[in-house]
Amino acid sequence: MARTTDGSGIPVPQRLLAAATRLFAERGYDRTSVQEIVEAAGVTKGALYHYFGSKDDLLHEVYARVLRLQQERLDAFAGADAPVEKRLRDAAADVVVTTIDNLDDASIFFRSMHHLSPEKDKQVRAERRRYHERFRALVEEGQREGVFSTATPADLVVDYHFGSVHHLSTWYRPDGPLTPQQVAGHLADLLLRALRP
Amino acid sequence: MARTTDGSGIPVPQRLLAAATRLFAERGYDRTSVQEIVEAAGVTKGALYHYFGSKDDLLHEVYARVLRLQQERLDAFAGADAPVEKRLRDAAADVVVTTIDNLDDASIFFRSMHHLSPEKDKQVRAERRRYHERFRALVEEGQREGVFSTATPADLVVDYHFGSVHHLSTWYRPDGPLTPQQVAGHLADLLLRALRP
DNA sequence: TGCTCCATACCGACCGGTTAGTCTGCCGAG
DNA sequence: CTCGGCAGACTAACCGGTCGGTATGGAGCA
Fold it and tell me: What are the boundaries of each domain within chain B?
């Protein structure tokens, strides 16, 4: 039996990352001790520092995972062969569903940015910016084509929508009355309606 | 000369609260030590624990102050003698301006909720809920009158708007191209346009 | 096949440093 | 004299990170 798995068959690094994600979302980064993480993962500190350089390295991995996922999905929707209205709507709805599917990541994302080391913070911000710009390009495309109103700067429109996405982790509860798809549909509708010329 | 003031003439409790607000927003609650707060306020720990019961008492005071302010303002706008469209627009724009005027409070608000003790957290959530409901009532009133679309549940509309308000502290910079009033105008426009029948 | 040897994976006691909160006592105003 | 308002040394509890040590499975060789 390899030392890298326990009964669950899941490798140690992934167990650590999963435990850290849950705990960071639950109690916050600073309130989660390294000891608690390793206990939740069923290992000891030696294992954690064998795979990760530091506690904030662990946090950085959470960010990297989310950013990669969101960027891939946006690229797929934005690059589709469809009218800009549909592409924006699909992209806007998808980010909502993806966020709800990973609510822990979402609560960590904005709440714990300032816990990253300066260099990692810079890196995350840069990736985040690319994402924002890709989204903004969609809005601007629709504005040039005349299918979206130009009354509001595209930047603000994007921040308006992401604000609501960001806010999801504050109010959305899986046991509530709305499914992720329903919420996504409504929020995408609000965005598109706000953009009607 | 009373011991409660220094050269600035501002009483010690208020100095402590102001220093704490700035530092909590800057570095986060956990990263701010009590020592740093008292140094910034020009006093010592003795003074802090003379006026406040604990560190999280200080945080609670920040929340209480913000909640009181926002509730008062919303009550004024919602209760005005004007068509519901104007009342909602004014209220929506005002919360944006007020939030920008107190960006420190805003970044603390959502980021540090989970640092409050359970009872204080409960109290803050209850107040927050009252605020949410007052706002929602405005939307529902417009929906009943037929001036707002009923396509989206009022609850979601409110969360949509507050999401963008919440998000302000992430992207708004005072030295940016837009004044608080301009941002408020745009965000209120987006809300009202999304609500057009 | 059996044996040696070593890289990898992990353990857990330990360390330096920090923190929230306490407590004794001073000091000036009334 | 007394009492609110504060000073600041102190403590007990952690916390992130280190480091010497241990176990294991496979590569290489006889």
Answer: 12-51, 55-195
Nucleotides on chain D that have an atom closer than 7 A to a protein CB are 4-9, 14-21, 24-26
Residue A93: other Cβ atoms inside 10 A? 22
Q: Name the 3-class secondary structure at B148.
A: coil
The answer to whether the beta carbons of residues B22 and B40 sit under 8 Å apart is yes
User: From residue B76, how far is each of A179, A186, B72, B90, B148 by CA, in Å?
Assistant: 35, 30, 6, 10, 21
A 91-150 residues inside an 8 A Cβ radius of B? 110-111, 114-115, 149
CB B84, CB B142: distance < 8 Å: yes
pLDDT class of B1 with cuts at 50, 70, 90:
very low
How confident is residue A3, by pLDDT bands cut at 50, 70 and 90? very low
Question: pLDDT, tens digit, for every residue of B167-190?
Answer: 999 999 999 999 999 999 999 999
Taking a C-beta distance cutoff of 8 angstroms, is the pair B70, B39 a contact?
A: no
- Dist. CA A62–CA B45, nearest whole Å: 37
Domain B55-195 has CATH 3.40.50.300: no
Q: Indicate the class that CATH gives domain A12-51.
A: mainly alpha
Cross-chain residue pair A187–B156, CB shorter than 8 Å: yes
Q: Quick check: B126 pLDDT over 80?
A: yes
Asked whether this chain's domains B12-51 and B55-195 adopt the same fold, the reply is no
What CA–CA distances, in Å, run from A102 to A25, A169, A187?
11, 9, 17
